[in-house]
Write a structure and sequence with these properties.
alpha+beta; OB fold (Dihydrolipoamide Acetyltransferase, E2P); Tissue inhibitor of metalloproteinase-1. Chain B, domain 1; five-stranded mixed beta barrel; two-stranded parallel sheet; 4 helices; 10 strands; globular; extracellular matrix; secreted; TIMP-like_OB-fold; protease inhibitor; Netrin_domain
Length: 212
């Protein structure tokens, strides 16, 4: 009986811990441009290996990458060899396929190591839009001094000249919405910030939540 009670207590404790951990990873929606500007490292890379590191209660996954191109962070770490992330997805760990895809990976540098997670921007390279690729190469850094303000409820108004109103959340799309996929918020010569689509100037005569 004592053994059974001990087992029951351990089981319930582990179940409660699991429920707590599963709900632990919550990320605020972030526009790709902000993800770019707020990251220490932004690279395009192939994942060529992985290893579970025995540190912490759940371990850390170390991915070995072959860096194809660096978009941000050259002054910090010109060549990235390893990407670290939590081994558990419930702790915001990222799962990357080995020798299968090229990835766009953003991350922060801590004690000489690059860390990424579910709250960072990572994506299979072939799933990025043309506008996002152009943003990585040139446009996003032009808007790092701008502020992208999420709009959850209408009406939404810019409160300063350096703000762009991000309305993808009105349709519950967030970082996978139309603005996130096709627009960058860049600073104009006049000093204010506005959305830029690239192939055509935005139509300011039309008020549309998905086409600023």
């Amino acid at each position: 009986m004592t053994a059974w009670l001990s087992f029951l207590v351990v089981f319930l404790c582990s179940w409660s811990l699991r429920d707590l951990v599963v709900e632990a990873c919550t990320c605020v929606p972030i526009h790709p441009q902000d993800a770019f500007c707020n990251s220490d490292i932004v690279i395009r890379a192939n994942v060529v290996g992985k290893k579970l590191m025995k540190d912490g209660p759940f371990g850390t996954m170390r991915y070995t990458v072959k860096q194809m191109k660096m978009y941000r962070g050259f002054q910090i770490m010109p060549q990235v060899q390893y990407i670290y992330t939590e081994a558990s997805e419930s702790l915001c760990g990222v799962k990357l396929e080995v020798n299968k895809y090229q990835y766009l990976i953003t991350g922060r540098v801590y004690e000489g190591k690059v860390y990424t997670g579910l709250c960072n921007w990572y994506e299979k390279w072939d799933q990025l839009t043309l506008s996002q690729r152009k943003g990585l190469n040139h446009r996003y850094h032009l808007g790092c001094g701008c502020k992208i303000r999420p709009c959850y409820y209408l009406p939404c108004f810019a409160t300063s000249k350096n703000e762009c109103i991000w309305t993808d959340m009105l349709s519950n799309f967030g970082h996978s919405g139309y603005q996130a996929k096709h627009y960058a918020c860049i600073q104009r010569v006049e000093g204010y910030c506005s959305w830029y689509r690239g192939w055509a100037p935005p139509d300011k005569t039309i008020i549309n939540a998905t086409d600023p």
